[in-house]
Amino acid sequence: MCAQVQQQLSPLNAAFLAAGQEAGFPLTEDVNGFQQHGVSRFEMSVNKGIRNSVSFGYLHSQKENQNLTIWTGCQVLTITMEGTRATGFEVKYQGKVINVFGSREAILSCGGFGSAQLLMLSGIECKVNLPGVGSMRPTSCGSVSLRSANINDPLCIDPNYMATSEDWRVMRESMRLGLEVAKQPASKKYQHHEHTPGVHIRHGAAMDDFIREDAASAYHPCGTCKMGSGDDAINTQRQY
Ligand SMILES: Cc1cc2nc3c(=O)[nH]c(=O)nc-3n(C[C@H](O)[C@H](O)[C@H](O)COP(=O)(O)OP(=O)(O)OC[C@H]3O[C@@H](n4cnc5c(N)ncnc54)[C@H](O)[C@@H]3O)c2cc1C
Q1: For ligand 1, is residue 75 a contact (CB within 6 Å)?
Q2: Are 120 and 108 in contact, with CB atoms under 8 Å apart?
Q3: Which of 108, 136, 219 to mutate to test the pocket of ligand 1 (most atoms within 8 A of CB)?
Q4: pLDDT at 235
Q5: pLDDT band with cut points at 50, 70 and 90 for residue 10
Q6: CA 206 to chain centre
Q7: 147 contacts 156 by C-beta, under 8 angstroms
């Protein structure tokens, strides 16, 4: 799976990086690495100008691999269990229900919601707030539950955004920092007037209302399925 930093900056992107430094933030080459603090070019899942995806990065790019058989258009219905051990999957493929068994191991990677749904449909309890689950920064914790035993029924998903005072503190501070960067000289030369949040919105209830109405998630649901045991289990699993 290829990731690379943004290669060609638009004038606005470049102005943002310059304004961030004018506001006192260092330029960092790797916000996911040695220096997370600062302004940076964004890292994207892109390979030679083409957007990369997990399925291409790990599966469809490996068609020549003799160890790999790819079935597309199939739906995993349940995880096959022997006691507490997962041995394979019951799969609907070309109209038939087939049992697929792993000789060594079975890996479930149906995403943050699909994996949780399959675990629950297979009788494996999904709890929220387990130690070792959920590594993202917000402190609010949502929940995922089954609507029914039918896999085709959508899940009940409650993201429970902004449920803690810490998340409100961070979001207000983020707004303050964003406005600070926006008023720097490098940024100002591109400004005609402030549309969002609007000059009359700077703090208090007006700012909170703006956050409530305009804040958006970055689509990274995580922490629904714990891997292994122990407090940092998700970090100590064998890497593939
Ligand atoms: C709009 C959007 C924008 C995003 N932008 C970025 C970005 O710019 N950079 C970034 O790093 N991340 C981004 N993400 C997050 C990124 O997409 C996810 O972190 C990543 O896709 C997770 O990969 P995954 O393999 O765990 O799950 P997924 O990519 O969700 O793959 C899970 C797959 O399992 C399949 N599945 C589920 N249930 C079953 C079943 N029962 N049987 C068979 N198949 C099943 C699903 O159809 C899906 O194909 C974005 C997400 C969204 C929604």
Answers
A1: yes
A2: no
A3: 219
A4: 41
A5: very high
A6: 29
A7: yes
**Is the CB of residue 79 below 6 angstroms from any atom belonging to ligand 1?**
no
- Return the residue matching tokens 């638009």: 10
* pLDDT tier for residue 116 given thresholds of 50, 70 and 90: very high
Q: How confident is the model at residue 237 (pLDDT cuts 50, 70, 90)?
A: very low
Q: What is the mean pLDDT of residues 124-129?
A: 65
Encode 49-63: b = buried (16+ Cβ within 10 Å), e = exposed.
eeebeeebeeeeeee
CA distance 191 to 215: 22
Measuring from atom 30 of ligand 1, which residue has the nearest CA? 111
Domains observed in the chain: 4-54+163-214 (3.30.410.40), 72-162+225-236 (3.50.50.60)
Distance 109 CA to ligand 1 centre (A): 9
**The pLDDT of residue 86 is above 70:** yes
Residue nearest to atom 46 of ligand 1 (CA): 110
Q: Of 46, 61, 210, 78, whose CA–CA distance to 146 is shortest?
A: 78
- Using 50, 70 and 90 to split pLDDT, how confident is the model at 238? very low
